[in-house]
């Protein structure tokens, strides 16, 4: 299952989070050559790993085998601080119901199975549960056909550019019931998420609900 890890239940996952930082270093620094992320302690961690971060980690027993993270765009993000040039056409996303999606990884020995699709289903399921309508992401162009084949609707924010010697794009990805159903059917699971311990809502719906109530009142 894909475990949902937030500030409220992170105390249950200390070892898993530390394990995933080391796997990220193995994948992004050692394997993919992103030397700007290299750290002497062998942990790939940055300013977007904090109490606002949500981790979706695939676990087999106590072992982390894949995952990714989500971060609110109402705060400074990778796109706004590191890659604003990739969003030169549509500007950097910033809204309560848009979250940034990053650090997607799978350990080498698990890349041949359906874990990739389950991780894609996980981001759609979590966002649907939380009322998040879109995720923003920076990814290499070779990801584009994979996401589209899974049914993701992608809206580029700008023109691709070279990042770490790879053509890279920033984009918005729609969250929808139809996309989640399409991906979850491919993996044969109606739900891929597991939630343990205390949970909290990550999007404040009160203003949206007030606006919807006002609109209904005006129409009645």
TrEMBL record:
GO terms for biological process: quorum sensing; signal transduction. Keywords: Autoinducer synthesis, Quorum sensing, S-adenosyl-L-methionine, Transferase. InterPro entries: Acyl_CoA_acyltransferase, Autoind_synthase. Pfam families: Autoind_synth. GO terms for molecular function: transferase activity. SUPFAM superfamilies: Acyl-CoA N-acyltransferases (Nat) (SSF55729). Belongs to the autoinducer synthase family. This is Acyl-homoserine lactone synthase.
């Amino acid at each position: 299952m894909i475990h949902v890890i937030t500030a409220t239940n992170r105390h249950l996952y200390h070892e898993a989070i530390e394990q995933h930082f080391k796997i990220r270093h193995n994948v992004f620094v050692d394997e993919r050559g992103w030397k700007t992320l290299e750290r002497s302690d062998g942990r790939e961690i940055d300013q977007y790993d904090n109490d606002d971060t949500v981790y979706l980690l695939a676990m087999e027993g106590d072992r982390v085998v894949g995952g990714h993270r989500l971060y609110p765009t109402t705060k400074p993000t990778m796109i706004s601080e590191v890659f604003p040039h990739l969003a030169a056409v549509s500007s950097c996303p910033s809204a309560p119901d848009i979250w940034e999606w990053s650090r997607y990884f799978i350990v080498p020995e698990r890349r041949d199975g359906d874990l990739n699709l389950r991780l894609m289903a996980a981001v759609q399921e979590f966002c649907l549960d939380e009322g998040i309508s879109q995720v923003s992401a920076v990814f290499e162009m070779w990801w584009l056909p994979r996401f589209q084949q899974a049914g993701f609707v992608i809206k580029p924010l700008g023109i691709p550019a070279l990042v770490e010697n790879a053509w890279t794009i920033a984009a918005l990805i729609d969250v929808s019931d139809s996309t989640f159903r399409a991906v979850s059917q491919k993996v044969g699971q109606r739900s891929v998420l597991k939630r343990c311990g205390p949970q909290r809502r990550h999007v404040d719906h009160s203003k949206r609900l007030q606006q919807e109530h006002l609109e209904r009142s005006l129409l009645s």
